[in-house]
Amino acid sequence: xxxxxxxxxxxxxxxxxxxxxxxxxxxxxxxxxxxxxxxxxxxxxxxxxxxxxxxxxxxxxxxxxxxxxxxxxxxxxxxxxxxxxxxxxxxxx
Length: 93
Description:
Blueprint: H1 2-30, H2 34-59, H3 63-88
Helix pairs in contact: 1-2, 2-3
């Protein structure tokens, strides 16, 4: 019973994460300002990272967890760089 429930919950979470990624993609394309596009990109990479985690839970492979950690680190660094660029016009001071 609990394995079936966990499998159904993971599949539902993956469907909802793909839906959230599509909404973030729409925000990245339609965003009226650059800040909206950066926020959409940030949301997109977080949802992608969580999708990899749910795939890792479903398959039981540790490779997906490592890939999601790398995406989280690179996504955070990219968001900080884009935010600094939008605020100051330069990334390196």
